[in-house]
Amino acid sequence: MTSITIIGEELAKKDEEFIFIGPQNDCKNCKLKNICFNLKQYHRYKITNVRDKRHSCTVHKGDAIVVEVEEQPIETAIDKKYTKGSAITLDKKECDEPLCPYYDLCTNKAIQPGKKYIIENILETIPCEKDKSLQRVILTEKK
Fold it and tell me: Please, which contacts does 9-12 make with residues 24 or more away whose CB atoms are closer than 8 Å?
């Protein structure tokens, strides 16, 4: 499903991806904040179309541009015991290895504890410094 949002002109390129971190304090009084903040926090989005409409913005360098985006599936690391098509519920993952190259993947903030997800695809095995048996997967929210 396509959504409309506003992004800084330096980032507003077709097929570019970004993670929506959430509302910024500087945006509290902006009349366009509802357009900027209609995305899910910590989810990845891909720009599918860049429109010609520009707005001044105090947060972004230069103007802000209206773009159409599509939410991307969630990538994370889970135990290898799960298979493609499985419905799973994940808890918040804790990891005390922030320097690990897979830290952000393993602790993906887009995962909502207690929510059900479907494993759409299994991508690869992930090496873990804690000797956990992990695999990189693509998840979608179970409807």
Answer: 9/54, 9/60, 9/61, 9/62, 9/63, 9/64, 9/65, 10/60, 10/61, 10/62, 11/60, 12/47, 12/50, 12/65, 12/67
**Is 92's pLDDT higher than 80?**
no
Nearest to 4 by CA among 45, 44, 43: 45
Q: What is the pLDDT, as a whole number, of residue 49?
A: 97
Q: What is the pLDDT of residue 67?
A: 96
What is the rounded average pLDDT of the residues 19-47? Answer: 88
Where exactly are the structural domains of the chain? 2-71, 74-141
pLDDT at 79 over 90: yes
Strand-pair category, 64-71 with 44-55: antiparallel
What does the block give as tokens for 61?
Answer: 């360098």
Nearest CA among 2, 3, 36 for reference residue 20: 36
**pTM (2 d.p.):** 0.83
